[in-house]
User: Fold this.
Amino acid sequence: EGITLLRAIAGAGGLAEGAKQTAIQISRKNKSGQEVKFKVNLKDILKGKTMDLRLQEGDVVFVPESFW
Assistant:
């Protein structure tokens, strides 16, 4: 069935201190094998403004560090 972004983050032990929740990047291969990257705002998911994203096999989730 897959896993959602929130469950993947929770399973990884949560976000590190200083994680930039508004600019999470997901890399995914489309049907033709090309890599597609898109940003997700985790704060919007937590507030219920956006649905939790269902991850697909092979997805790579990158959470950048906030410097401010």
Q: What stands out?
A: Residues 5-11 form the longest helix (7 residues). The radius of gyration is 12 Å. Residues 28 and 59 are 5 Å apart (CA to CA). The chain has two helices and five strands.
